[in-house]
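Our preliminary data section would be incomplete without showing what the modeling component actually yields. Below, a chain of 128 amino acids is followed by its predicted structure, encoded as tokens that our downstream tools consume directly.
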Amino acid sequence: MKSKQSGITLIGFIVVLAVAGFFAFMAMKLVPAYTEYAGVVKAMNQIATQGVEGQTLDQVRRDLLFKLGFQYVDDATISPKDITMGQGPKGNELRVSYDKDIPFMYNIDFLIHFEKSVPVAGNVAPPQ
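Predicted structure:
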């Protein structure tokens, strides 16, 4: 009686390993950007809970950038122009919108757009 072999060949295993390695490399490049975004969200929520009553937009930006330092957010990631205040459905909102360019391999890059808004208590004072 002939025995029927089953399983994966060495060539098939190498192909599966190459595909899994490609996606693992891609994840190693992308995960830090998303953990950094989680730090941005945490810092924004801290600003939202403390309120912005009587502060100017520049003071809010400075305070948020200071808190981002504690969340290990790179200084080059968010610039002050990326931080805005505006009217939302529930009142004043603190908005952060930025793009993250991540080099992948050769001339291939990932461009990820992050945008978050949180409602804040209080009104921002006009610039002085």
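The helical segments are 10-50, 57-70. The longest helix spans residues 10-50. Preliminary results of this kind motivate Aim 1 of the renewal.
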